[in-house]
Amino acid sequence: MGKKEQKEKKEKPLDRMTAKELRELALTIPEISGVHGMNKAELLAAIKEVRGIVDDKAKKSDVSVRDTKKKIQGLKLLKTEAHESKDMAKADLLRRRISRLKKKTRRAA
User: Distances from the Cα of 22 to the Cαs of 17, 51, 66, 86, 100, in angstroms?
Assistant: First the structure.
């Protein structure tokens, strides 16, 4: 057996796979549906659930990027309202809060 054939037989760890690789793997599993609409975290969770793999690692945060971005949108609306009402202190506070949340989304992605 050549080195290339040995590499193909050995499967990469799920956490190291790209979203595209995970999607291809999930397509081969009949229990998982809606594969193309899932992101990497959702694909990992679905594959691990089907295979019976339990994650012992503690997550960094329970908040997903999508939820954080929804919060940012809501805060942006509040910030524009504060600017319109000439409440600059509140607008500055909201600007800093939005900035912090944006940094969290960059770290989580």
Answer: 6, 13, 20, 50, 31
Beta carbons of 46 and 32 less than 8 angstroms apart: yes
Q: Which amino acid is at 27?
A: L
Q: Rounded CA gap, 18 and 14, in Å?
A: 9
pLDDT (tens digit per residue) in 63-79: 688 889 999 999 999 99
Measured CA to CA, the distance from residue 31 to residue 44 in angstroms comes to: 14
Structure tokens at 14: 């799920």
Question: Greatest CA separation found in the chain?
Answer: 74
pTM: 0.47
